[in-house]
Design brief:
Layout: E1 4-5, H1 17-25, E2 29-30, H2 32-48, E3 52-55, E4 59-62, H3 69-76, E5 87-90, H4 101-114, E6 119-121, H5 129-135, H6 137-144, H7 147-159, E7 163-168, E8 171-175, H8 204-210, E9 212-213, H9 216-221, H10 223-227, E10 234-236, E11 244-246, H11 248-258, E12 262-265, E13 274-277, E14 289-292, E15 304-309, E16 313-319, H12 335-365, H13 371-398, E17 407-409, E18 417-428, E19 437-447, E20 452-454, H14 463-475, H15 480-492, H16 499-507
Parallel strand pairs: 1-2, 3-7, 4-5, 5-6, 8-12, 9-11, 12-14, 16-19
Antiparallel strand pairs: 4-15, 7-8, 10-11, 13-14, 15-16, 17-20, 18-19
């Protein structure tokens, strides 16, 4: 099997997404020229779309993936959704932090070119130069392809639409990555945004990518918030250092003004994959906002989720970590270098905090600067901080040594997956113009096994080496000591193989 191939196509001339998935499942990459052409093709479609897209079909909505490719294909290929929707909506944040951002983008862009009007990709806050320089995507592009392709992806990000409004019998739903804005009264205002550039640090464009709902936890911990929940509009978002938290009064007024049933957004990890927001109200029976997050194990043991909107009801799917591959280790690093990477990550954090501290002191000395000047200074500071941190991100990526073999999915038995049907919950919408009864159902996959194995034939490797590698990958804790001990034992058995050959051919280790 070739490690680098051209983008596969079907006899009809469409991109063969199934063949593409199989190739990525074995650790392969695509010819850079083909990826470049794919970006150009898809960008031509995005450029024709308005800032706000309107959809009148049943839709399946996915949240943040952050480079976790195996979550993407697990959810896309779930037979539970088969034949139940005609359009898929992706809420942004396809890249950064995970190790397979390129694979996520190439797969989604292939689907977009195959079916432009039925694959909607919205922009997230990570689809920007400032974020991708320091959060991993630039380093990944440099390692797998080139910086030229990275800059081409950044140009593509500038063309992504911002909002999708889904029209169904149960109501209209406002889909974006972040949230609503104090600078927006009607949805039509969004079409006046010039989106074809790097997102700003304030204003409507920024809020659509960066805004957050006030969390239910905050209402529980602060009685004052709970008591006056219906008076809260917007609060400064100190966690993000930009945009706002939006409260009950703000979102309720937005929904009423625009005759919208609920906001559906991504941007925030939650434990169950899909979170419903009631903004402190004990009277609401239907949430004003849904948060969909599709990257499992992103924070501790969170599940991933997706959401189906149809004319009759809302279906919510929840998933544990996919059992096809570990999204955290698609390549097996040298254990010693892996430790160095962790050290570099710590240095990166220290550098960022140090630079932030210096700039914060400078801000205190220039309190008289105008608003416009402050905005320009903030952008310059953020660019400088990201440039400084990107050095460490790119350095740590260059230290990774790929294993000279492929990883693939172990064949599963039917009993490997248990499907739990959670009882259906009926709820109602009290706002005018909406159907009173909406059915929300939950479907959850619980996967019992998570096995990995090396895809080269076992007969090619001495059994002691094979078993040692198999155990190391399955536990995600490769042991250099155990590997060296195995090599010594093979030498003692006088097999016709050298330590150097084993290291280079099977382990990808240097002397």
């Amino acid at each position: 099997m070739n490690y680098i191939i051209s983008l596969p196509k079907t006899p009809a001339g469409l991109y063969d997404t199934e063949a593409l998935q199989r190739h990525f499942m074995h650790g392969g990459i695509i010819e850079e020229e083909d990826v470049s052409r794919l970006i150009e093709e898809s960008e031509s479609y995005f450029g024709l779309e308005e800032n706000v897209i309107h959809v009148y079909d049943n839709v399946l909505i996915f949240g943040d993936y952050h480079g976790q490719y195996f979550d993407l294909i697990t959810q896309m290929n779930d037979p539970f959704w088969e034949g139940r929707y005609s359009t898929s909506i992706y809420l942004g944040d396809y890249v950064d932090r995970g190790t397979m951002s390129c694979e996520v983008l190439i797969t989604l862009l292939s689907m977009k070119v195959n079916n432009p009007s039925h694959v909607i990709m919205l922009r997230g806050n990570h689809e920007s130069r400032n974020m991708t320089r320091s959060m991993g995507f630039m380093a990944e592009c440099k390692m797998k392809y080139s910086l030229t392709l990275y800059y081409q992806f950044c140009s593509l990000f500038d063309s992504l639409p911002l909002v999708c409004v889904v029209h169904r019998d149960i109501g209209d739903f406002f889909c974006c990555h972040g949230g609503i804005s104090p600078d927006m009264t009607t949805i039509n205002q969004i079409n006046s945004i010039d989106r074809f550039h790097e997102p700003p640090l304030e204003g409507l464009f920024c809020d659509l990518l960066w805004g957050d709902p006030i969390s239910e936890k905050r209402f529980e911990e602060q009685p004052g918030f709970k008591k006056h929940y219906d008076t809260i509009t917007f609060l400064p978002n100190n966690e993000r250092n930009c945009s706002y938290y939006f409260g009950y009064k703000a979102i309720n007024e937005f929904l009423q003004t625009n005759n919208i049933t609920a906001v559906i957004r991504g941007h925030q990890c939650n434990s169950e994959g899909v979170e419903m927001h009631f903004f402190g109200s004990d009277e609401l029976e239907f949430p004003l906002c849904f948060t969909v997050f599709s990257a499992s194990l992103y924070s501790l043991n969170n599940k991933s989720g997706s959401l189906l909107l149809s004319n009759e009801k809302i279906d919510i799917g929840k998933y544990n970590q996919p059992d096809c591959l570990s999204q955290y280790n698609p390549i097996l690093p040298n254990p010693i270098l892996f430790s160095v990477i962790k050290v570099m990550e710590s240095i990166e954090d220290i550098m960022y905090q140090l630079i932030s501290f210096v700039f914060n002191e400078e801000d205190d000395e220039h309190e008289e600067i105008s608003k416009v000047q402050v905005s320009q200074v903030q952008i310059q500071q953020e660019n400088f901080k990201n440039e400084a941190c990107s050095y460490f991100s790119s350095t740590e990526k260059e230290l990774i040594t790929p294993l000279n073999s492929y990883l693939s999915q172990k064949n599963r038995n039917d009993e490997d997956i248990i499907v739990i049907e959670i009882p259906e919950v009926k709820t109602s919408i009290s706002r005018k113009g909406k159907i009173n009864n909406v059915l929300i159902t939950f479907k959850e996959n619980i996967q019992k096994k998570n096995s990995l194995f090396l895809s080269f034939d076992q007969s090619e490797v001495h059994p002691l080496i094979y078993n040692n590698l198999h155990a190391s990958i399955a536990t995600q804790e490769p042991s250099l000591y155990e590997t060296n001990e195995t090599i010594k034992r093979i030498r003692q058995e006088s097999l016709p193989v050298s330590i150097e050959e084993i290291r280079k051919k099977y382990l990808g280790l240097n002397k």
